[in-house]
Design goal:
15% strand; single chain; 13 strands; 389 residues
Length: 389
């Protein structure tokens, strides 16, 4: 779908949730897919080797627990350094976003959202009738959070403040110092608000760099979300979680989950439990691959610096690039997007996340190592063609 066609659909859309063309990533997978933000996909065989086929044969396919299986919550608690009882499992982080939007907020309440962001982070709130007050981070400032601007958006009506670390689409992290200052602002200006931190990409680090500790357990106001989708490469298991220190909110979220999906799939949860038990076996080689991919991308960005700008990521298999305004006018930007399919290329438009369509998210961890270089070469060819009169 072209940018023009996307805009046409958006203007005629009648759904309760806003239309976002990010849905196309579920339907199209071109040979040079630089749109995906995950590491390479695991196979069922990979996870079965961890779980043990014989152990799964006796698994009963009845209903699971709405809060999630005890074994899975125990592994998540270890990964996030919180008690298992504080964990509520969800179908990916996406369900967690939905549950928070509908349970924490009511129509007329305010939520402060740091953007650009994963589209459902915004769209679940809008679908719930929440007054969303956005903090728009900019490419020019490296997507760093401006606490003064955030403070100006807070009010006693604020029920939720939502951000991601690392961010999607930029891969920029929020430091513990920034989060602690943000918590102090909430105490002063938004006494009823919780702080949601999406940590989906937290463990996707580079080379020998250790993953930072989860923000879970840092403060009673903080709810975190995560999943096995991104760093671990198992989005098809649809297994995520929220860490919720407040017992009342946790109970309400479990009931909300019961009224939407009842419980998680017991087979998915069993496989996700095994994956989390052996997560270092999966993460270690992926860290090396991400470091290699990032180095290759950095070299390409340097070679293309007269046409491309980028913000170097701090985590995740993703980052933001921008077509230089002094090289690409509006018509050239449109040509760029129209040309991609002809070269078997896929990118994620910045417009999907609340950015300009001059910006795009590029994933450098999804393609096998031997495919990333040719994909970047094809991207250079598209840049050449888009500049042609």
């Amino acid at each position: 779908m072209t940018v023009h066609e996307e805009k046409k659909v958006a203007t005629t859309w009648r759904g309760r949730f806003p239309y976002n063309e990010i849905i196309s990533l579920l339907d199209v997978n071109r040979p040079f897919n630089l749109a995906e933000s995950t590491s390479q996909d695991l196979t069922v065989g990979d996870v079965l080797d961890m779980a043990g086929l014989e152990a799964l044969r006796s698994l009963k396919l009845g209903y699971g627990r709405s809060a999630g299986s005890a074994e899975l919550r125990e592994e998540i608690g270890k990964a996030c350094n919180v008690p298992a009882e504080q964990v509520v499992t969800t179908q990916g982080t996406a369900l967690g976003l939905f549950l928070l939007a509908f349970e924490v907020c009511r129509p007329g309440d305010e939520a402060v959202l740091v953007t650009p962001c994963f589209p459902p982070s915004r769209d679940c709130l809008l679908g719930a009738g929440v007054d969303v007050r956005e903090i728009r981070l900019t490419f020019e400032t490296g997507y760093q959070l401006d606490l003064d601007e955030l403070a100006a958006r807070l009010s006693p009506k604020t029920k939720l403040v939502s951000l991601a670390s690392p961010q999607n689409p930029s891969g920029v992290r929020a430091s513990r110092a920034v989060v602690e200052k943000l918590l102090a602002l909430l105490e002063q200006r938004a006494p009823q608000a919780i702080l949601f931190i999406d940590e989906t990409y937290r463990e996707a680090t580079y080379g020998d760099k250790a993953a930072p500790d989860s923000f879970a357990g840092l403060h009673p106001r903080i709810v975190t979300g995560g999943s096995v989708s991104k760093a671990l490469g198992a989005p098809g298991l649809r297994t995520g979680w929220l860490t919720v220190p407040d017992a009342d909110l946790r109970s309400r979220l479990v009931v909300a989950k019961l009224n939407t999906v009842i419980c998680g799939p017991v087979l998915d949860e069993a496989l996700a439990t095994a994956l989390l038990r052996h997560r270092e076996r999966v993460l270690a080689p992926r860290r090396r691959l991400l470091a290699e991919g990032l180095a290759e991308l950095a070299a390409w960005c340097e070679a293309e610096h007269q046409r491309i700008e980028w913000v170097r990521p701090e985590g995740g298999a993703l980052c933001c690039l921008r077509l230089r305004a002094d090289t690409f006018d509006t018509a050239a930007v449109s040509r760029f997007w129209d040309l991609l399919p002809r070269h078997d290329l896929q990118l994620a438009s910045g417009a999907w996340f609340g950015e300009s369509d001059r910006v795009f998210r590029l994933g450098f961890g999804y393609l096998p190592p031997g495919r990333l270089g040719p994909a970047l070469s094809a991207l250079s060819t598209v840049l050449d063609a888009a500049m042609a009169p």
